[in-house]
Amino acid sequence: MGGHHGGGLGAVEAVAAGDSPVHSLDPRVKIVGLIGLVLVAVTLPPGAWAAFGALAAILVGMAAASRLRPLFVLGRMTIEVPFLLAAAVLPFTAEDGLVLEASVALKVSISVLAMVILSSTTPFPSLLQGFEMLKAPRLILTIVAFMWRYLHVLAGEVSRMQTARAARGYSAGWLWQAASTGTLIATLFLRSLERGERVHLAMRSRLYDGSMPRTATGPFETRTADVLFLTSLAVLLVLVVVVLA
Length: 245
Description:
- Helix content is 70%, strand content 0%.
- With 245 residues, the protein is mainly alpha-helical.
- The protein has two domains: 9-123 and 221-244, no CATH class; 137-168 and 178-216, no CATH class.
- Helix 2 runs antiparallel to helix 7, helix 2 packs parallel to helix 11 and helix 3 (49-65) packs antiparallel against helix 11 (224-244).
- The two termini are 35 Å apart.
């Protein structure tokens, strides 16, 4: 894919709006299929190496079909690092700890990779609408929608504050200068509270009733490609469970 695949929410949105066979699939099909794959992964017994390898191969194939750059995928998968560090204590606390640690690490990696592919091939409004059409709780979807929207706002606020700090000659090269980071965080927290109050009042004045307006991303249509994708993935998952697990 073209375009910038670096870090940041804008880069994630740009990648999700790309053009590939996986991008063009019905979001509902991707949600059901990839969450099903995650459920299979987390229920595999420890030491089911062939099954773990097969699931990883399926996801790598999907990432390749999505034309996602390896460095972009690996960058987004760094979210799993705390979980992998937590699993590192298992050899010291459980019998067959090494097998258990490796199995947990593979389950986490497979699950994170599946969610990275889902979120990197589906624009966020389409993803939310897909979950809504699959009858996910509306309250949770509303909270997630607000969270995603204001992550962008906070990221912009942080960028402006860092620019202002740099304009005043700030440099993070010295240990004692790190204390200003605490001030930045406190300022960001106060500005966030103030912005939240203003947004709340604005929404009340517009008679917000607790439900998000429907986006213009749908309606979704289940096509032959969607049926083939979901059927093929279901067959592969059954084979993984029956033959390899």
